[in-house]
Design goal:
Layout: H1 3-8, H2 10-18, H3 23-34, E1 39-43, E2 48-50, E3 53-55, E4 60-64, H4 65-68, H5 103-120, E5 121-126, E6 131-132, E7 141-143, E8 146-150
Antiparallel strand pairs: 1-4, 2-3, 5-8, 6-7
Helix pairs in contact: 3-5
């Protein structure tokens, strides 16, 4: 989840608070923005050409997911965090046979978490610098200091 993204983009937090119907879009944008799976390796099972590069069968392929997120050819202004981004084609949960089995549950949990949080707090903000897990495969926040005021 990326509460940090919302806290670092207070205009988007206010937008989501003002229009809770953006919840599903906001979740997709947070997943796109954070991309919890960082990198992994695969072995090419057949010769494949990607752009100008030919990958022979049997070669190892290193995939760095944040770099693999769709860019300008898919998203308008991909480096802008936008909770209302329509038709978000993020690939943080993988694709095809490697699609995450828990993706639908994760989306539901995130949407409900933010619905409930924003319904209960008047103000929430960063109260220090976050720290992250040191990892190569799946990463995320280790510590996110926040201050908040309940309704």
């Amino acid at each position: 989840m990326d509460l940090e993204a919302l806290l670092r983009h207070p205009d988007q937090l206010a937008r989501l608070r003002h229009d809770p119907s953006l919840g599903a879009n906001a979740v997709e944008e947070m997943i796109r923005w954070v991309t919890p799976v960082k990198e992994f390796m695969r072995t090419a099972t057949e010769d494949r050409t990607v752009g100008d590069l030919t990958i022979p069968a049997g070669d190892s392929v290193y995939l760095r997911v944040p770099v693999g997120q769709p860019g300008r050819d898919v998203f308008d202004d991909p480096f802008r965090f936008d909770v209302g981004r329509p038709d978000n084609k993020q690939v943080a949960f993988g694709y095809g046979v490697h699609y995450c089995l828990g993706a639908h549950l994760a989306r539901l949990e995130l949407r409900v978490f933010f619905e409930e949080l924003l319904a209960r707090v008047d103000d929430v903000q960063l109260a220090g610098e976050p720290s992250r897990s040191a990892t190569v495969f799946v990463g995320g926040l280790k510590h996110l200091p926040v201050s908040y005021r309940m309704r």
